[in-house]
Write a sequence for this structure.
């Protein structure tokens, strides 16, 4: 495996040797041949580089022997230094290429993952939270430098324009559980949503698409393009500010329940499966509170109806989704 730190040390060592050879050569020409410092440096450089324009003065026998030694030493050190530098460049590029190929093979094996299109401020928060939840995801990033930084961070990254079908396929959109379009442009988010929905219409019709929009008009268009849900950070931020202003205690509770990972408290959704024993059972007889230590605060029925603060007589059915605390 390519060790970049070791190769860099070889380059530094070669540069040190090269400086020592130049100092020794300049010193000889100044002290033994009587040249000025500039002439001695000039003689050393043209000797090591084998350019050989002309000698400043005629050399005697000892001067010529030293020049032969200087040529051999200089070429050896120069070859070593340039070789080490070339190894850093070439092998580093090869390592990055091999690493990208390996990562693409790992992405090809993923199923049920999430695709994050865009690693801006929202994308960064999304990735950090998904890492905490240990949920597999792939980032699609168009900026090469940002993509390289994310790769070094340990993320799976596909470099390219998320509006292109080939890039979405590389990210495994036909095998993904969900896609999040959070690039800065409404138009790009619309194209990403439309492309993903068209690609997955037959291959992955259950793909959940969540998109970002800056205004209500853009939200409506992105929804028509196929997004399951569209969020506006400005609207969400404004609502949270109002909550913090008018209902600070409620806001503190939401902050704890949704953001603090140190406490054993969080919102979760629990699905009642098709073969569940809870089908037709009232909430009071379900044993959910005793068995799982959760509080059911809402029930989303199969038809989409949301029942808030369900009473003990509320009957559960297969396909219901419980919102629990």
């Amino acid at each position: 495996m390519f060790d970049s730190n070791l190769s860099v040390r070889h380059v530094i060592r070669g540069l040190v040797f090269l400086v020592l050879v130049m100092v020794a050569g300049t010193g000889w020409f100044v002290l033994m041949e009587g040249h000025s410092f500039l002439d001695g440096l000039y003689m050393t450089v043209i000797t090591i580089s084998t350019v050989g324009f002309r000698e400043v003065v005629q050399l005697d026998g000892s001067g010529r022997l030293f020049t032969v030694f200087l040529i051999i030493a200089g070429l050896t050190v120069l070859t070593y230094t340039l070789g080490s530098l070339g190894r850093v460049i070439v092998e580093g590029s090869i390592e990055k290429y091999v690493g990208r190929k390996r990562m693409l093979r790992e992405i090809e094996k993923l199923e049920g993952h999430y695709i994050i299109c865009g690693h801006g401020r929202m994308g960064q928060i999304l990735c950090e939270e998904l890492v905490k939840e240990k949920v597999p995801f792939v980032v699609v990033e168009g900026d090469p430098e940002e993509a390289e930084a994310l790769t070094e961070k340990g993320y799976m990254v596909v470099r390219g324009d998320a509006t292109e079908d080939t890039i979405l396929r590389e990210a495994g959109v036909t095998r993904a559980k969900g896609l999040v379009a959070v690039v800065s442009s409404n138009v790009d988010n619309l194209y990403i949503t439309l492309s993903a929905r068209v690609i997955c219409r037959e291959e992955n019709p259950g793909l959940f698409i969540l998109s970002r929009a800056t205004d209500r008009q853009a939200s409506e268009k992105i929804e028509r393009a196929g997004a399951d849900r569209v969020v506006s950070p400005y609207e969400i931020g404004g609502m949270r500010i109002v909550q913090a202003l008018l209902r600070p205690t409620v806001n503190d509770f939401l902050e704890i329940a949704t953001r603090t990972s140190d406490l054993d408290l969080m919102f979760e959704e629990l699905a009642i499966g098709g073969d569940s024993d809870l089908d037709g059972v009232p909430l009071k007889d379900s044993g959910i509170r005793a068995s799982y230590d959760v509080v059911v605060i809402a029930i989303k029925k199969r038809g989409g109806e949301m029942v808030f603060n369900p009473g003990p007589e509320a009957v559960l059915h297969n396909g219901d989704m419980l919102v629990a605390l």
